[in-house]
Amino acid sequence: MTEIASPFISQPRILVLGVMSGKPGTPPFRIVEIDGEVVGRARAVTDVLEVAAAYGIKVHDLDDPDVVCWVGGDKFTWKPRPLRR
User: Fold this and answer.
1) Which of 13, 20, 24, 31 is the most exposed place for a label (fewest CB within 10 A)?
2) How far are the Cα atoms of 2, 7, 42, 45, 48 from residue 71, in angstroms, in the given order?
3) What is the mean pLDDT of residues 42-66?
């Protein structure tokens, strides 16, 4: 038997949290964590790439869950979701 006892669970170094509404009149943003530490805000996917590069992380594929975990949407989600009632 060649199967392992537990499945592989990836823990990407980059975590991009859900969209947050800023103060009125400011654009929405997403908080970016690297290795479990909050390192900044991103207002676009390019901001995520810039933060990653600043920490020495080369991102070749933003859809690779072993590299980036997108919480509350994907790389195209940059506006807050409307509240459901």
Assistant:
1) 24
2) 33, 21, 13, 14, 13
3) 95
